[in-house]
Amino acid sequence: MNKKTPIVIAVAAVSGGGKTTIATGLKTKLDQSEVLSFDAYDFEGPDDMIEWIENGCTPDEWDLTPLIRDIKKLLDEPLDYIILDFPFAYLHNETREFIDYAVFIETPLDIALARRIIRDFQNRSSKEILVDLENYMLRGKSGYISMLNSVKPSSDLIVDGTLPKSVIVNNIIANIKT
């Protein structure tokens, strides 16, 4: 009997766009599934994020060996789905070969920024929030826009990030199963 290989779904979005929320929602609804989250790893990557953004945000500048190792391990498990909470979708050359389906959550930048501030700055000072907002306006927004221009068009499905989580999850599942 041939062993069934899990379907690997990459869930991409800008920071604050809903990757983790939707990946978790998919895991809840898809039997025999596991989630691997980009943010759970300490990858070797660009030292200066702003410089990386200004130089085109090339995903291959990240050494994703630990994630690739974990994907390979899960491919041998009795799973139906592996869900990657992963910002690059198909754009990282070494991970591309493992991904069967890429979803991009299109979330308006103001909503993504607000979510990120709420998530990351709950116990920080207002001065730290203001510095982050200034950096976003001066340089960071270009990284978000670069992602919209690169990851979004290379995805198999684009979903509206302003919809309720359950609607987004059900939409993704319906598209994967067709």
| Lateral arrangement of strands in the main beta sheet | 2-3-1-4-5
Query: How far is it from the N-terminal to the C-terminal residue, by CA?
Result: 25 Å
Q: Tally of extended strands?
A: 5
The description of the largest β-sheet is: 5 strands, parallel
Oligomer kind: single chain
Q: What is the tally of helical segments?
A: 7
Q: Write down the overall mean pLDDT.
A: 91
Approximately what portion of the residues adopt beta-strand conformation?
5-15%
Cα gyration radius (Å)? 17 Å
Structural class from helices and strands? alpha/beta
Outline, from the CA principal axes?
A: globular
Low-confidence stretches: none
Order of helix and strand elements from N to C terminus: EHEHHEHEHHEH
- Proportion in helices: 40-55%
Compact overview of the structure:
This protein is an alpha/beta fold and 178 residues long.
Q: Which terms would index this structure?
A:
7 helices, 5 strands, 178 residues, alpha/beta
Outline the structure in words.
This protein has a 5-stranded parallel sheet, with helices on both faces. Helix 1 packs across helix 7. The protein is of the alpha/beta class. 46% of the residues lie in helices and 15% in strands.
Write the layout of secondary structure elements.
Blueprint: E1 7-12, H1 19-29, E2 33-37, H2 49-54, H3 65-75, E3 81-85, H4 93-96, E4 101-106, H5 109-120, H6 126-150, E5 157-160, H7 165-176
Helix pairs in contact: 1-7
